[in-house]
Amino acid sequence: MRVLVTGAGSGIGRATAALLATRGHEVIATARDRSKLDDLEVAARLHLDVTDAASVDEIRRELGWLDGLVNNAAVSFGGAIEHLGMEYVHAMFETNVFGPVRLIQAFAPGMRERQSGVVVNVSSVTGHVAEPLGGFYAATKHALEAISEALHIELGHFGVRVVVVEPGYVAPGMKPNESGGRPPAYDELAGQLAQIVTKVLGGERPGPEVVAEVIADAIDGDGGPLRRRVGDDANMILSARSALGDEEFETAMREVVGLTW
Fold it and tell me: What residues act catalytically?
């Protein structure tokens, strides 16, 4: 299969591109900084800025068609809702939401016409559960979940599969937080949240390879669920979110994390 992976310069995207190549796929690895792709053993390494319509159009003209699309590119800026600069909010929505939409609109028509193909959208546990000081990032993933759910019905009629991958706390490969989005009033909350990985995962984050396995299996498979959780923490959090009411869920998560805020 000819599969394009966005955000392949690091983290989940890089691990996914490498794994798909070992499975025999024709992988087109893309990144905003093409130099980060130089040592990837894939069929093609191309510059792609998912926030730039002209860049997406150029890729579409060059490739023409795809069998698979992995929308992985994302950025994350944490900060309090009252304080995070709108430039950072716009940057997250441009990359995490409008970027996947640009790629879908570029390549889904060809998949529909051929009545085959698969679109994998990399979401997050935060696509269902918003973490304090991460509300805007969670909002982008909530939006991607909604788009994916509608797309699943729209394209499924034509034989095109849509899969949403929902990792928990995985070793990060995204752009680091440089937003200055937290006034001192929230320092105590930030300190408590910093202990989440230790309290939920014992201090160890699984690597991006575990997410790559799920993505590759989704591409290689013929069916399966719309949503694929990745990680024990994702299973725990999302199962609790489904089973409990808002107040019960908040109480349970506060106990697990030790949040007193």
Answer: 123, 137, 141
